[in-house]
Amino acid sequence: MKRTILSRLLNMKVAIGFLLVLSAIAALGTFIAQEQSAEFYTFHYGNRIGHFLMTTGLTDIYHSPWFIFLGILLCVYLVLCSLMRLRGRKNRRLIGSVILHLSLVLLVAGALLNMATGATEDVSLVRGETAKLTEGALAGTTVQVDKFTIDWYDNGSASQYITDLAFTDRKGKRTKEQISVNHPYRHGFIKIYQEKYGWEVHGKVSSLDGTKKYALREGQDFPLKEGQSLAQIFVPNYDVESRSLKSVTAAPKNPYLAVALQANGQPVDMRLLQKNGKSMIGNLQISFDDYVPYTGLRVKYDCGIPVVFVSFILALAGLFLRYMDEIRLKKGDRHG
């Protein structure tokens, strides 16, 4: 009687249903923005729904204790199902099925491990700059850029961007590596990917109060007094005839800098500067002295990948054992 009840409870159909429910919950993470500020959720969803999402952990599903608990529960359930199927019967076909179930356990375990301990951090650095990483398991490590170069096609588009970097782990071990697009750096469970590139413009802002240097990247403004600021757009290859701020090519063949004086976020006046050029805007003198490329890197920590890899190997082994006899029989029928 007990065995009958247990066999009904420990059923793979129930496990598959459990897995579908867990997958549906995980899918919510693609519809609900994850790991945003409280202000973000109250603004986009309202006070009541925003508070509900934050209270239930739906704003950080993959790291919430209840989601990880459900994943662990699924793994335990699958193991018990596999052990239940092995009781009293042991043949190659059955062993193959059990190995398939265990591979699914490892797959879920690897995904949970990544959700619980995985970390991702994006950094943008110019040559000689160092970033101290702070996210999760990446905290305590540093990335320094020794050199960054961009290769160009003849049509002015980027063919490859390459970063020579130095990575220092938590123990203080320092290693150097060259990375490029599709060729990341690997250090244990840490990978550093070449993601993008951009431009940092340098110059000076002079007024009666003195002269200040600036180093700005795309989307960054230079703050001034009384709600004013300077916005800038770097144009790598400016078309003098069309006067469009859309660059002709990505390669910096004729670099210009568009500078706009803003008051309370609204443009008041604008100037266009060639490299090494100066201009007055309002009561300010603006200079565009230089530009340098910066590299955009993505640093990821993922200790679940080896577990997932082993799960795929087990799945292949399980499939082989599960269907080996059927394949042999079919071959025998053909030869017969």
Largest sheet: 6 strands, antiparallel
Helical run tally: 6
Number of domains: 4
Oligomer: single chain
N/C terminus separation: 47 Å
Overall shape: elongated
Parts with pLDDT < 50 across at least 5 consecutive residues = none
Strand/helix succession: HHHHHEEEEEEEEEEEEEEH
Gyration radius, rounded: 29 Å
Q: Could you tell me the strand content as a percent range?
A: 35-45%
Q: Helical percent range?
A: 25-40%
What is the arithmetic mean of pLDDT?
85
Number of strands: 14
Quickly give the structural class: alpha+beta
Membrane topology: Multi-pass membrane protein
Keywords: Cytochrome c-type biogenesis, Membrane, Transmembrane, Transmembrane helix
Protein name: Cytochrome c biogenesis protein
Domain ResB-like: 12-87, 95-326
